[in-house]
Amino acid sequence: MTISETFSKAANKVAYWTGRPTTFAACVGIIILWAIIGPLFGFSDTWQLIINTGTTIITFLMVFLIQNTQNRDGLAIQTKLDELIRVSSAQNRFVGIEKLTDEELEELRAKCEARAKSEEADEVVEGVNEDVRKKIAASIG
Length: 141
What we know:
Layout: H1 3-18, H2 21-36, H3 45-87, H4 102-140
Helix pairs in contact: 1-3
């Protein structure tokens, strides 16, 4: 098994367990326990250092874990969307657009929005024409 596979497996398991209500409850329990033993240590610098160091290390590691999980989720979603685009009547040129710059994406979004508004206007005109045709047919008939 490669390092990447091992990391992905471990990241999935840790992400699963850290997102559980029991894990949250355990963390709250640790904080309560830390607060309770504060008077025993006289609220000393060592007592504060324990929680500060522990939370800093966990936070530091979780940042990388969360980023890895989001990267994989994002890639999976993009792959699924690309496949849906590929097999549908949508334009295949949209496959892979997540790699464009922010400016290129904004330009493409604006073009899509303009095209959607234009199509809506065409539908309104077609609807009006149909209504006019029905009125003419009714008045003749």
